[in-house]
Amino acid sequence: MPTIVVPIATGFEEIEAVSIIDVVRRSGIEVIVAHVEAEATVRGANGIHIVCDRPLEGISSNDIDMIVLPGGWGGTDVLAVNETVQRLLKEMDAQKKYISAICAAPYALNTAGVLRDNFTCYPSVEEKISGKNYLGDTQQVVYDAHVMTSRGPGTAICFGLHIVKRLLGDESFHTLKEGILADYCE
Amino acid sequence: MPTIVVPIATGFEEIEAVSIIDVVRRSGIEVIVAHVEAEATVRGANGIHIVCDRPLEGISSNDIDMIVLPGGWGGTDVLAVNETVQRLLKEMDAQKKYISAICAAPYALNTAGVLRDNFTCYPSVEEKISGKNYLGDTQQVVYDAHVMTSRGPGTAICFGLHIVKRLLGDESFHTLKEGILADYCE
User: Fold this and answer.
1) Total structural domains within chain A
2) CB B15 to CB A14 under 8 A?
3) Domain assignment present for B148
4) pLDDT for the residue numbered A107
5) How far is residue B103 CA from its own chain's centroid?
6) From CA B61, how far away is CA B92, in angstroms rounded?
7) Which of A92, A101, A174, B50 is the most exposed place for a label (fewest CB within 10 A)?
8) Does B121 qualify as catalytic in the annotation?
9) A164 lies in a domain?
10) Which residues does residue A118 pair with via DSSP β-bridges, in sequence order?
11) Pairing between strand A3-8 and A30-35?
């Protein structure tokens, strides 16, 4: 089974992080919930505390098949400057391994120089990203080569399903979508 | 501002619990995340650990405007037999205060004798609930008097929005729905 890592930083958006982790784990894919800062227990944007599995420090691009960044302004501000996160993004990109981000977090892909031309994000975040093709709400999830982006809390389950589709294929996507009752995911 | 309580027990469904807490907190409503068992850190159905605010024990129906039960089979099995949960449900019902449950958790309302005639739940859970009118997927959220039920992970954000609608009204519902990008919520 493939392995993905979800870096969690203070101020992460809880629906986004938890929907991704929950949906992807249901498929059997291994999900490492990794804290970026020193503490394993991290406070989200809406005051929900989650306990991470291990530190991000020490996780290599060789160990994982995808890195997925949840949004939230506070969390994204950390992900956009944290050296471990930024280095891992660049390593993944150099190996053409999957990179995904939702909501505000495509901004942190851009600071690492790994965001592709076509992308989406939470409305207004695109104003901080120049020279790229923002696709807005035309798609819940945008694929461009090995980089995948999505919009916000309301598309987080669909984004989780697309992570599964990318790593395990269409059949897993459809089976999970039905089980989760997310008939609105395209 | 109104106050709601979300009881959390081992095996709770993470998308459901977190979507409800996150969406409702965004509205300004106070949300108490309350652990039902002894430990404040509780493991969900998909291995995500969240840290609760305080124990459910000691919270009275006089302190809260709504009780909301997240689903997940493991969590529901606890909620359906836990004396504090079942007593609080009966107290809320006797005062016609709002009671809500999603996914498997309407079963725990039924064991307390507070489930109304019209309800929905995760498909197949209705087989454990006799003598009631299961509405299936005809509505994302079913209202019957002061009791509200919903279906599963894919309807959890919509359920959170309906909790806000019930306590704060239509305008808050629509503003939040737009901000969360959940255009599929009815």
Assistant:
1) 1
2) no
3) yes
4) 98
5) 9
6) 6
7) A174
8) no
9) yes
10) A133
11) parallel
Residue with tokens 């709400």: A137
A92 and A67 in contact (C-beta within 8 Å)?
yes
**What are the backbone angles phi and psi of residue B75, rounded to the nearest 5°?**
-60, -45
Q: What CATH number does residue A151 fall under?
A: 3.40.50.880
DSSP state of B63: G
pLDDT (tens digit per residue) in A153-172: 999 999 999 999 999 999 99
Q: Give φ, ψ of A78 to 5 degrees.
A: -70, -50
**DSSP string of chain A, one letter each residue:** --EEEEEE-TT--HHHHHHHHHHHHHTT-EEEEEESSS-SEEE-TTS-EEE-SEESTT--TTT-SEEEE---HHHHHHHTT-HHHHHHHHHHHHTT-EEEEETTTHHHHHHTT---SEE--STTGGGG--SSEE-GGG-SEEEETTEEEE-SGGGHHHHHHHHHHHHH-HHHHHHHHHHHT-TT--
Q: Report residue A148 as tokens.
A: 């995948």
Optimal mutation site among B10, B12, B18, interface A, most CBs of chain A within 10 A: B18
What whole-number distance in Å separates Cα of residue A146 and Cα of residue A95? 10
CB contact B122 to A (< 8 Å)? yes
Give A182's pLDDT tier (boundaries 50, 70, 90).
Answer: very high
Would the CB atoms of A18 and B14 count as touching at under 8 Å?
yes
Burial of B111 (0-12, 13-18, 19+ CB in 10 A): middle
> Which residue in B has a C-alpha nearest to residue A178's C-alpha?
B154
Which residues of A participate in catalysis according to the annotation?
103
Residue B185 lies in a domain: no
The backbone region for B19, taken as left when phi is positive above 0, alpha when psi lies in -120 to 50, beta otherwise, is alpha
CA angle A12, A77, A32 (to 5 degrees): 45
Whether A151 contacts A103, CB under 8 Å = yes
3-class SS of residue B31: strand
DSSP per-residue codes, B115-170: --SEE--STTGGGGS-SSEE-GGG-SEEEETTEEEE-SGGGHHHHHHHHHHHHH-H
pLDDT tens per residue across span A9-54: 999 999 999 999 999 999 999 999 999 999 999 999 999 999 999 9
B141, part of any domain:
yes
Range of the domain at A109: 3-180
